[in-house]
């Protein structure tokens, strides 16, 4: 009897914690939607900021964020996948590999502002890319690299050994085996890593302050060597700069809402791709 | 796999697009106090000159001047004059910083219209905001607690006020913080014992402006330099401005540009 009561109390505590987690998530979404959804209109999505950031839209920031996502993923996805394939499939097992793995995991724990300073020193100044989409995308790409490598590794390791053995038994080369037998079943897991990275890239402010972002610019970038507006930095700018905080706050909440929708819809798209892939493999 | 390849290709294509060579780019960096002036004027300027593209970054006065010295910006914004040390550093790099005053920043101290106090010294204002004085009777008023209203520390107006009136000392912790000039004015209008400060553009008949050190806060006294809670705002260039930068700076100091600056709560030059 006593055991049962203890168990019940334990479970109700676990349930309570679950509830707190869900509640905080729900509160965030509720507040962003309640305060931000009102600002959304066609004009808000398609125009540049106007009248000293008190009206008009945030289109350049949306496009800028989109470019940064595309650029950083285009850089980090192939690189991360290649790293993971090498580490899982080719490299000899040993302590050097372990050191490399530990290093990659540690890289994942580096604060994002440190990546920002790194990007400033290396891409902006040393390579001379300036404050640009290129510098920002590379900085963000390096920031999410560990995440993509880890997720890809997990996914590759989860592919049953028998797949590889069967492929080798048919006379396939290692590369062919990886391409045809290992990567396809691992793809859903790899994509999960990329999805999470997209969310991080879209939302990070610190790495782009010094490398890619500008507070105000009209229209869209013509090349990857131009700086861009970006949603998270625009929110920051609206809340800290300017002389019309009341109107700016509304726009900031609108931006937060767009950011939320953007990240959720990218995740949703990737989930669909993942499910389809899984079904095809299944 | 095919989808991913397509996505990747699209990304490369979009990112690789390079634009037309007919546009002229102006980069502006620096002071967040000057930012609203730059932003508002840049908007109008680009309406008139679509071939010019202006990008404005923040970062603070120090950053703006450093960017001029490094040659990484066309215009460096600053809410303070360049220091001797910075001039030396610039000259050693072959950079010749030129200051352009683009607007004036003046702050009016305001009280409720029912308050009998109509003049304060800078010292009295400092005492009120740091907490040494807490009753109107101590400074010649008709008595009652002083309700101190200030701005949040992110505000440029706060920064200026803190520097010019309080010598960077801490505001008393129980001061009521408001998020905008407008909110300060409204609170002062509604609260009989209140004192606050607003950008000169927000000095309306609903609040009572207080003379500081015997000088009334007005555009004229700010322009003449008599009023002490005021400072000029600068845009720096390397050497005399040329081309599109010159055109833009000419616009900022034109009567149209100055009207836009005043709309942002600053004091125009003319």
CATH architectural grouping of the largest domain in chain B = 3-Layer(aba) Sandwich
Order of helix and strand elements from N to C terminus of chain A? HHEEHHHHHHHEHH
N- to C-terminal distance of chain B: 65 Å
What would you report as the Rg of chain A, rounded to the nearest angstrom?
Answer: 23 Å
What is the overall shape of chain B?
A: elongated
CATH topology of chain A: MetI-like fold
CATH top level label of chain A: Mainly Alpha
Task: Calculate the mean pLDDT score of chain B and round it.
Answer: 86
From the 3D structure, determine the CATH topology of the largest domain in chain B: D-Maltodextrin-Binding Protein, domain 2
Helix content of chain B: 25-40%
Description:
The complex is a heterodimer of chains A (282) and B (270). Helix content of chain A is 77%, strand content 2%. By secondary structure, chain A is an all-alpha fold. Chain A has a two-stranded antiparallel sheet. In chain A, strand 1 (49-50) and strand 2 form a beta hairpin. In chain A, helix 10 (231-240) packs antiparallel against helix 11 (245-281). The mean pLDDT of chain A is 89. Chain B has two domains: 2-104 and 233-263, Periplasmic binding protein-like II (D-Maltodextrin-Binding Protein, domain 2); 105-224, D-Maltodextrin-Binding Protein, domain 2. Chain B has ten helices and ten strands. Chain B has helices at residues 2-16, 35-48, 61-70, 84-92, 122-130, 156-164, 181-190, 219-224, 243-253, 255-263; strands at residues 24-30, 52-59, 75-78, 97-111, 119-120, 147-151, 176-178, 194-199, 208-212, 230-238. The longest helix of chain B is centred in the N-terminal third of the chain and has 15 residues, at 2-16. The radius of gyration of chain B is 22 Å and the shape is elongated. Chains A and B meet through helix 3, strand 3, helix 10 and helix 11 of A and helix 1, helix 2, strand 2 and helix 7 of B.
């Amino acid at each position: 009897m006593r055991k049962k009561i203890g168990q019940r109390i334990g479970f109700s505590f676990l349930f309570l914690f679950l509830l707190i987690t869900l509640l905080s998530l729900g509160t965030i979404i509720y507040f962003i939607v309640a305060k931000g959804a009102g600002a959304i209109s066609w004009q808000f999505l398609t125009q540049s900021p106007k009248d000293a950031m008190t009206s008009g839209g945030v289109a350049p920031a949306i496009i800028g964020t989109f470019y940064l996502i595309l650029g950083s993923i285009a850089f980090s996805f192939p690189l991360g996948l290649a790293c993971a394939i090498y580490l899982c499939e080719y490299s000899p097992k040993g302590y050097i590999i372990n050191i490399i793995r530990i290093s990659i995991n540690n890289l994942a724990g580096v604060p994002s502002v440190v990546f920002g300073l790194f990007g400033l020193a290396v891409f902006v100044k040393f390579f001379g890319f300036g404050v640009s989409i290129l510098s920002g995308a590379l900085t963000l790409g390096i920031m999410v690299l560990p995440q993509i490598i880890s997720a890809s590794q997990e996914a590759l390791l989860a592919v049953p050994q028998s797949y590889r053995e069967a492929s080798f038994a048919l006379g396939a080369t290692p590369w062919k085996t990886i391409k045809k037998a290992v990567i396809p079943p691992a793809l859903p897991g790899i994509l999960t890593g990329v999805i999470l990275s997209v969310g991080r890239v879209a939302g990070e402010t610190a790495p782009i302050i010094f490398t890619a972002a500008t507070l105000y610019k009209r229209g869209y970038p013509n090349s990857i060597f131009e700086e861009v507006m970006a949603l998270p930095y625009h929110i920051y700018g609206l809340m800290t700069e300017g002389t019309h905080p009341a109107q700016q706050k509304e726009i900031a909440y609108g931006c937060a809402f767009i950011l939320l929708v953007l990240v959720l819809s990218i995740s949703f798209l990737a989930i669909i791709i993942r499910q389809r892939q899984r079904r095809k493999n299944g | 796999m095919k989808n991913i390849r397509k996505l990747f290709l699209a990304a490369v294509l979009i990112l690789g697009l390079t634009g037309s060579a007919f546009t002229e780019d102006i980069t502006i960096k620096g002071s967040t106090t000057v930012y609203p002036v730059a932003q508002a004027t840049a908007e109008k300027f680009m309406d008139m000159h679509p071939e010019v593209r202006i990008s404005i970054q923040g970062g603070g006065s120090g950053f703006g001047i450093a960017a001029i010295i490094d040659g990484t910006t066309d215009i460096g914004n600053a809410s303070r004059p360049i220091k001797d040390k910075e001039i030396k550093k610039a000259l050693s790099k072959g950079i010749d910083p030129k200051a352009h005053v683009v607007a004036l920043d003046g702050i009016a101290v305001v009280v409720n219209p029912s308050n009998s106090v109509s003049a304060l010294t800078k010292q009295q204002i400092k005492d009120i905001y740091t907490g040494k004085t807490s009753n109107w009777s101590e400074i010649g008023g008709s008595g009652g607690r002083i309700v101190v209203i200030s701005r949040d520390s992110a505000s440029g107006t706060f920064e200026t006020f803190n520097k010019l009136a309080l010598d960077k000392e801490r505001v008393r912790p129980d001061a009521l913080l408001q998020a905008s000039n407008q909110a300060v004015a409204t609170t002062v209008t509604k609260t009989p014992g209140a004192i606050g400060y607003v950008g000169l553009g927000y000095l309306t008949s609903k609040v009572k402006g207080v003379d500081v050190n015997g000088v009334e806060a007005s555009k004229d006294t700010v322009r003449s330099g008599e009023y002490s809670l005021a400072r000029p705002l600068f845009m720096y260039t390397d050497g005399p401005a040329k081309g599109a930068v010159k055109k833009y700076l000419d616009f900022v100091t034109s009567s149209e540009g100055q009207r836009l600056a005043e709309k942002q709560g600053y004091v125009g030059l003319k």
